[in-house]
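Severity: low
Component: inverse-folding endpoint
Summary: output formatting inconsistent between runs
Steps to reproduce: submit the following structure tokens with default settings.
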């Protein structure tokens, strides 16, 4: 089971990262002129993606990246639990709950926006 969780975590992290980078790349024209570096764009994406001028498709792809990150974090919790590291499992479960909360918060914002 742990081997599948390791493979799943790597695949889900890769997909989440690829989606997030694609959103940042496609959202570059919508960022203010003061944000020029890609690192700054990654940092400000979570706040600016909900502005009305961002396309709905980018928001959806952003939520998909969060969803795949949640799946990857769940796999990490499984790995920590199956390998006998209960404190790490609790730590990563806490991070998983924060990620789930961020995803649900984003989903409600997505549903409210036209």
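Observed output (run 2 of 3):
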């Amino acid at each position: 089971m742990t081997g599948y969780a390791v493979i799943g975590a790597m695949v889900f992290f890769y997909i989440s990262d690829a989606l997030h980078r694609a959103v940042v790349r496609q959202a570059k024209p919508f960022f203010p002129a003061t944000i020029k570096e890609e690192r700054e764009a990654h940092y400000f994406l979570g706040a600016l993606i909900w502005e009305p001028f961002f396309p709905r498709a980018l928001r959806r792809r952003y939520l998909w990246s969060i969803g795949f990150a949640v799946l990857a974090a769940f796999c990490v919790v499984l790995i920590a639990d199956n390998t006998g590291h209960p404190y790490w499992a609790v730590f990563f479960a806490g991070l998983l709950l924060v990620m789930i909360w961020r995803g649900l918060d984003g989903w409600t914002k997505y549903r409210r926006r036209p």
